[in-house]
């Protein structure tokens, strides 16, 4: 039971204070004039002012409430390192027993799991969530069981009571980690890119200034080993050999006694891109479709185009002296002998043998294609003539032979069954609405892949691989009709763009490919093939275990499946003769960037609250009660602040000075004062 006096004034307080001032002035005047009853009159006035202030007697029936102590247990991955689970179990048991023996204490146990994605330890977020569910006036303290490596300490909340950190780990712990400080997401193929690496020892490392072995594996190949000094930044120049994703794995062998090897490896994935694609376009003569190729290639800022159109062939005799012509001489020797290997693609657009390119030059083009180059022939009527470039050394690489027949009839180009699976022509929708072409060169004995057909289902677009290179033959010079919108047009630019990029070996247009798209620890495995069926894909995990997954067809020529990787690291995928590697998640998650237990991260949070950092290695500290604002930790002990919170069960009120009693007392003092003054 608690007794309290409250005031419920009958009139506003300013009125009471004004009345009190007038009364005081009157009393002073009476005292000045020597009135003998001034004291009795003062008592009467005081009783009346007290009555106006409305004193109330209040009685409360209260029930004390227990103090709340929040205990946050760090259960993230770094807390499972050597010796820490046992420390946590022992500390949990002893702390529970100590808090149960503390009278008037409720405990809220909070578990801190690994953050979503790679967020690390979100200790302060977990404490903030726990505080949101509790009345802050009852919180007597917060105790964290953790290694102190908290990744949201900068988001500290306003804490109503002391916070303490009971530190896991040992003072003699040490760990070695590999850091990739600088790794670009993109790099130019064939040009050096510099990565900055550092091998660093943390904690009580056994040796200073030592050396460590570093293994480097590119694309899943056998690793190469180098020896680097510990604690020194090392710049590693690398050259990407192919486009698309390049996976590079760095690893340092585990040393005896170090805490973990999870941060001894790092995966770097760099996309290889071409700096500039050099294309040589040779037009045999001006024609309506010549600008189509030029516009397509010039629209790509990454393409350097060298275009020659033969305007004055040797057989043309118009009597104009050569020195008066404003034409550029065709630099045949420079282009086809000296610099042919500088080009990524050579296009012959309606070109025929005219004596401009000797057979030795065309033979050099064939060797260029066999050695890894790309040649595309856009055929016109000249391809079916006696001067066709097929009647040259290029016949060794061209995928089809002309029959000497030119079909001058309207037809609608169509994608073949094989073309629906090939990345160059797959997904080209609306074939039924495409405009017609009006000319086609008849081909026979095609080799390679026929992706499109024309009049009478004859081959229209044929692709083939020769040696290390690629060759394509388009048996019509009327693709330009689509760009003009003839009969509705068609996907001419998209078709020719894909065709050119397939020939330049862009990874996304490979017809036989296995790759994976990653998101966190999940990968979407995709297989593209023209074989008509894809077998199961074998996934080899970072620990060497293998899993076979069946693929399901999602589109013509394309299969896929999904797989959740059990751990971060390098995964190898194999299906038939196709293989690739892919990295899932960071090789060294944020939880393992700093593994040595330390209280320095949380020190800015604990210091204003007078909390402490104590090692569990030294034993469980005792609990003490401390007043707010006093030091809350010391050697071997931590303090909790009693909150003395309570719950009011009932309240009763009554007037402290009844009105009749106030009137009687005031009248008594007034009469007594009057009598005293009258007796005088």
TrEMBL record:
<dbReference type="InterPro" id="IPR029062">
    <property type="entry name" value="Class_I_gatase-like"/>
</dbReference>
<feature type="transmembrane region" description="Helical">
    <location>
        <begin position="12"/>
        <end position="31"/>
    </location>
</feature>
<keyword id="KW-1133">Transmembrane helix</keyword>
<feature type="transmembrane region" description="Helical">
    <location>
        <begin position="657"/>
        <end position="675"/>
    </location>
</feature>
<keyword id="KW-0472">Membrane</keyword>
<feature type="transmembrane region" description="Helical">
    <location>
        <begin position="38"/>
        <end position="56"/>
    </location>
</feature>
<protein>
    <recommendedName>
        <fullName>Glutamine amidotransferase domain-containing protein</fullName>
    </recommendedName>
</protein>
<keyword id="KW-0812">Transmembrane</keyword>
């Amino acid at each position: 039971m608690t007794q309290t006096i409250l005031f419920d004034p009958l009139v506003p307080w300013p009125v009471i204070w004004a009345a009190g001032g007038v009364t005081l002035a009157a009393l002073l005047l009476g005292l000045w004039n020597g009135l003998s009853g001034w004291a009795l009159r003062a008592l009467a006035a005081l009783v009346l002012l007290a009555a106006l202030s409305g004193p109330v007697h209040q009685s409360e029936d209260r029930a004390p409430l227990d103090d709340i102590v929040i205990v946050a247990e760090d259960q993230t991955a770094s807390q499972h390192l050597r010796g820490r689970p046992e420390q946590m179990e022992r500390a949990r048991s002893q702390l529970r027993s100590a808090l149960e023996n503390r009278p008037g204490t409720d405990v809220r146990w909070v578990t801190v799991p690994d953050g979503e994605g790679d967020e690390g330890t979100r200790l302060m977020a977990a404490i903030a969530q726990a505080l949101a569910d509790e009345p802050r006036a009852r919180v007597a303290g917060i105790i964290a069981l953790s290694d102190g490596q908290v990744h949201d300490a900068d988001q500290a909340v306003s804490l109503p009571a002391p916070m303490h950190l009971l530190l896991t780990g040992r003072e003699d712990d040490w760990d070695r980690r590999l850091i990739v400080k600088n790794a670009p997401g993109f790099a130019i193929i064939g040009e050096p890119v510099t990565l900055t690496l550092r091998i660093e020892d943390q904690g009580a490392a056994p040796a200073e200034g030592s050396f460590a072995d570093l293994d480097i594996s590119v694309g899943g190949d056998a690793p190469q080993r180098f020896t680097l000094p510990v604690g020194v930044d090392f710049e590693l120049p690398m050259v990407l050999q192919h486009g698309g994703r390049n996976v590079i794995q760095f690893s340092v062998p585990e040393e005896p006694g170090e805490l973990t090897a999870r941060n001894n490896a790092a995966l770097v994935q760099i996309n290889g891109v071409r700096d500039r694609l050099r294309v040589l376009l040779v037009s045999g003569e001006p024609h309506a479709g010549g600008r189509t190729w030029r516009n397509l290639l010039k629209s790509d800022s990454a393409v350097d185009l060298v275009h020659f159109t033969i305007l004055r062939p040797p057989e043309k005799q118009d009597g104009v002296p050569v020195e008066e012509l404003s034409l550029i001489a065709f630099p045949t020797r420079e282009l086809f002998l000296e610099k042919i290997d500088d080009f990524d693609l050579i296009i012959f657009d309606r070109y025929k043998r005219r004596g401009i390119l000797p057979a030795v030059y065309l033979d050099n083009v064939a060797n260029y294609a066999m050695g890894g180059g790309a040649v595309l022939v856009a055929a016109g009527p000249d391809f079916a003539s006696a001067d066709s470039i097929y009647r040259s050394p290029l016949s060794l690489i061209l995928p089809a032979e002309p029959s000497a027949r030119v079909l001058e009839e309207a037809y609608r180009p169509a994608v073949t069954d094989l073309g629906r699976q090939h990345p160059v022509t797959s997904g080209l929708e609306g074939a039924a609405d495409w405009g017609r072409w009006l000319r086609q060169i008849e081909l026979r004995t095609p080799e390679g892949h026929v992706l499109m057909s024309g009049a009478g289902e004859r081959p229209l677009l044929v692709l083939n691989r020769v040696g290390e290179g690629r060759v394509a033959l388009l048996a019509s010079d009327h693709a330009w009709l689509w760009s003009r919108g003839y009969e509705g047009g068609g996907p001419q630019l998209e078709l020719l763009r894909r065709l050119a990029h397939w020939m330049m070996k862009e990874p996304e247009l490979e017809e036989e490919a296995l790759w994976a798209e990653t998101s966190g620890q999940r990968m979407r495995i995709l297989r593209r093939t023209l074989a008509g069926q894809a077998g199961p894909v074998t996934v080899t995990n970072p620990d060497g275990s293998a899993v076979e997954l069946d693929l399901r067809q999602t589109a013509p020529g394309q299969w896929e499946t999904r797989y959740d990787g059990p751990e971060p690291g390098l995964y190898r995928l194999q299906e038939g003769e196709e293989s690739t590697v892919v990295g899932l998640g960071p090789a060294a998650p944020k939880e393992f960037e700093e593994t040595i237990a330390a209280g320095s991260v949380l020190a800015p949070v604990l210091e204003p609250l007078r909390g402490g950092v104590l090692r569990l290695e030294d034993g469980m500290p005792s609990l003490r009660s401390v007043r707010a604002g006093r030091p809350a930790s010391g050697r071997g002990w931590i303090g909790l602040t009693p909150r003395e919170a309570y719950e009011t069960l009932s309240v009763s009120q009554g007037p402290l000075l009844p009105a009749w009693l106030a009137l009687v007392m005031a009248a008594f003092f007034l009469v007594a004062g009057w009598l005293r003054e009258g007796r005088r």
